Amino acid sequence: MDRHLQLRSYISGHPGAVSKVVEYNPVADRFFQLNFTASNTQLNLADVTDTNKFGHWINAQLQQHNCRFGIGGYMEHRTIYQRSALFDTYDEPRRLHLGVDIWGPAGTSIYAPLAGKIHSFQDNHHFGDYGPTVILEHDLDGLTLYTLYGHLSRQSLTRLKVGHVIESGQKIAELGHADENGSWPPHLHFQLMFDLEGMSGDYPGVGKFSEQETLQANIPDPDIILQIPAATIIA
């Protein structure tokens, strides 16, 4: 069976196995759909390169729309990666976002949505990178799935041990400040992978647009796990 279908089949067949990634109240809390493509003319390169200005813009959007969190990004072709040379390659710059971002205050608790174990973790501390990062490994009735959590606090990494068993719904980390999370306004990069391709503590969260089809084969839509009700998302 196709791994994407396998994953969907597991999730639909084990509704109690999937827990929250961030704490939110579906009755009271709202998520604002942030747009970081070229169609967003409110942001320019100077704004996104300056982390403070970028953060002020995001916070203003959330306040304006009365939303607790910002959200979005899966397979979004983003212009904001011009802010860091990390995403520039000689043939084609990487601009395709491969996970979902949840923008919220530093210190926000992050939870494991599925039972599993700690595969790896490290501080990817380059400008524009993930900063502190955790990868969990899950065995879903024979299907291996990895979940990645980027832009965490450094304190989050001090409590971890490779191979340690993690329960569904267990707190695993907190969002980091800009001075520790790769120089981004506080947010979680949440990503799913079937294959880590031998990597440890890191896996690309941004790819080449020309490779979108290949990337999607290995990187499912995180909404399969997040399951945030559409009624709570403000576009």
UniProtKB/TrEMBL annotation:
Keyword Signal tagged: yes
CDD domains: M23_peptidase
Gene Ontology MF terms: metalloendopeptidase activity
Keyword Signal among record annotations: yes
Record keywords: Signal
Domain of life: Bacteria
Listed name of the protein: M23ase beta-sheet core domain-containing protein
